[in-house]
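Subject: for your reference before the review

Hello V.,

The reviewers asked for a structural picture of the protein, and I figured it would be easier to keep everything in one thread rather than splitting it across files. Below is the amino acid sequence we used in the manuscript, unchanged from the supplementary table.
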Amino acid sequence: MEKIKVGIVGYGNLGRGVEFSLGQNPDMELVAVFTRRDPESLSILTPNVKTFHMDKLLDFKGKIDVMILCGGSATDLPTQTPDIAQHFNVIDSFDTHAMVNAHFDAVNAAALNGKTVGIISVGWDPGLFSLNRLYGEVVLPVGFTDTFWGPGVSQGHSDAIRRIDGVAAGVQYTVPKESAVSLARHGKAQDLTTRDKHERVCYVVLKGGADAATVETTIKEMPNYFSDYDTTVHFISQDELDKNHQAMPHGGFVIRSGETGANGSKQVIEYQLKEDSNPEFTASVLVCYARACYTLSKSGALGAKTVLDVAPSLLSPKSDAQLRQELL
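And here is what came back from the structure prediction:
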């Protein structure tokens, strides 16, 4: 079997999850890991695979089929994805919903120029939840869709906290408000605001000399991340963070409520996700879309794509006949 050759860019929690997931997919092969850190400082899981500094990326042009980008959405992916898409097929997990179209346009221009494919915003939200919102809307065109996240750790929001001056470490939990979830399940949540539906709870370790009030204000006023939510900031020690906030659970719901028929029959579609590990689950989604990216590229496709553009069968290593036999 000819294996799909994959590179990992960035080796934090998400990068480690991608590496493990590749080991669960026998049609895929990890070729190299790229980092901004000292490559010698990394200890990876896969035998006989080397780590390289980011400045060695172009040495692998033509040797890697898909690069899976594992940086953060706040500052890494907006520049990394279009830069790398000029030379490689790429997958990223860009999750700043308000900036998706701008990111898509930048990656599309780069991928068209480089004659590559770039699938952006791959994960569970955006990603799998995006698909479920689409299915809900088209099946129940008269209705409302509500998405709830958590309770759990948001990687993107936690990363955004850690990029703030004065922050040594931090984690952010997204918590759905139970009253809002109940209203959604009964088709009565259409008038709820973003603030009505969720709260965000942050646990932050300050650097020495940092001003807590300034950091708290910066977090609460951060657009696209915290400004539209009720946000609570707790300042804690590194020891407490290490002891109580190292797990990375997450999950959520997509609920579509609508009406059908002349008598207004009530219909509800609900998709729920529970994760022990947010980065490991996200990594698993990235890997199956890397397979689709490779297939699209081999078929002559070019430019940026999202999960809304990719046929489900392209995610699977199974043949179309096998999928029909087993899943239809």
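For the response letter, the relevant points are probably these. The chain has a mean pLDDT of 95. The two ends are 26 Å apart (CA to CA).

Happy to draft the paragraph if you're swamped.

O.
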